[in-house]
Amino acid sequence: MSRNSIKLHTPAGKRWLEKATAEAASPKAPAAAPAAKAKAGKPAPSGAGEVRIIGGQWRRTRLPVAQRPGLRPTPDRVRETLFNWLGQDLTGWHCLDAFAGTGALGFEAASRGATSVLMNEQDAALVLQLQRLRERLDAQSVRVLRGDGIGCLRQVAPGTLDLVLIDPPFDHAELFEPALKAAALAVSAQGYVYLEAPQAWTEEQLAEAGGLQLFRHLKAGAVHAHLLRKAAQDE
């Protein structure tokens, strides 16, 4: 029986009205909420969310974060601290982001004026995302490469980089030491190596991994951020 055919003053109509009223009062009655939407009526971003560039010419630009195994963008607080340590202005610097992931670190460096930023990533889907972001930002200083992070570092001419960014997946402990050794060769005598790891590295461990020494350290939650330099060579 359709609603339009029911006369509410009849017994059948009264029964229908009582049933409808009870259903409306039930907590099960409301329809499922529509999918969440982003501000300004735009569709919500897919994947795990987004991060934002902290400073430079692309300040406040948001970068998408895909749902990929082991992908863990560097937190805003850590990136802000890192580039405070580096002095904010990276004009003329040559940088390499060996495990680029979302590109947050590499794009942050480019945003602050780096002359060249090579972003290396092994995951094909993330490489495509990085290329799209590069085009969207018209980031002329950025080059995206697909490949193994350690292999990429080993192909760099010794002593030619001002900044090497190392942020491998935390569940691949075997990557950290060889990456540091390769970075120590690739970076210039006055350059910096940034290491993000699940635990603090000791002076002894750093010395063994290519003769590096700790310049700055920050712990933020489960993240240990290390800014490293080459140990001074004896004359």
> Which fold does the CATH topology refer to?
Rossmann fold
Mean pLDDT: 82
Q: In the CATH hierarchy, what is the class?
A: Alpha Beta
Biggest β-sheet description: 7 strands, mixed
Order of helices and strands: HEEHEHEHEHEHEHEE
Distance between the termini: 98 Å
Q: Shape, please?
A: globular
Helix/strand-derived class? alpha/beta
CATH architecture: 3-Layer(aba) Sandwich
What's the CATH superfamily, by name?
A: Vaccinia Virus protein VP39
Radius of gyration: 26 Å
Detail the poorly predicted runs. 1-8, 20-47
Helical percent range?
25-40%
Number of separate domains: 1
In percent terms, what proportion of residues is strand?
Answer: 15-25%
Strand order of the largest sheet: 5-4-3-6-7-9-8
Q: Any key phrases for this structure?
A:
disordered N terminus; globular; about 30% helix; 7 helices; 9 strands; Rossmann fold; about 240 residues; two-stranded antiparallel ribbon; alpha/beta
How does this model look, in words?
The chain has 235 residues and is α/β, with parallel strands linked by helices. It has one domain: Rossmann fold. It has a 7-stranded mixed β-sheet with strand order 5-4-3-6-7-9-8. It has a two-stranded antiparallel sheet with strand order 1-2. The longest helix is centred in the N-terminal third of the chain and has 15 residues. It is globular and about 40 Å long. The protein starts with 10 loop residues before the first helix and ends in a 5-residue tail after the last strand.
